Give the backbone structure.
Amino acid sequence: MARIAITGGIASGKSLFASALARLGMEILDADDVTHRLEAPGGKAVPELVRGFGREILSEDGGIDRGKLGKRVFASVAERERLNLILHPLVRAEIETWMAKPGRSVKAVVIPLLYECGWAEDWEVVICLVSSEETQIRRMVCTRGYSEEEARRRIASQMPAAEKAARAQMVVQNDGDEAALLREADRVFAELISRYGR
């Protein structure tokens, strides 16, 4: 089985690209979905996150209020590092459990912080999506409701997109429309299937 990682900067189109690959028949897991499950009511990460950040990050249902936690960790490098020390081992364990299950010849995991986590060596192919900073900011302001200042802060908290692209085996430029990205997904899927089979 080929292990594929999909990464890239925030608002670079990773989820849409991965959804297109899934429709084409590739098995996909999104690390953000794993994180959401870990932070949901009863999730494995909740007790440790409460110990690390206090009960004020809890939502009414007993899960983690991602908005409250996000404001704290994106305003402080130390807080972000503390969060990563808690979450990353749990996320990685869930990914490896999923990878170990029988499946198709190609499985892909969307991991936004692949390089920041130091997980880049675990994959046959890393696909990096890249958008200009202006495009990222526009998407974050228009579709996620961030202020321009908050968007810039979140972009700055990640490794520069050019550095990620330089380390990846495949690069997908995504400054165009959805149709252009879907064409790129078709191209990448065809190349991976020709290399690894179904």
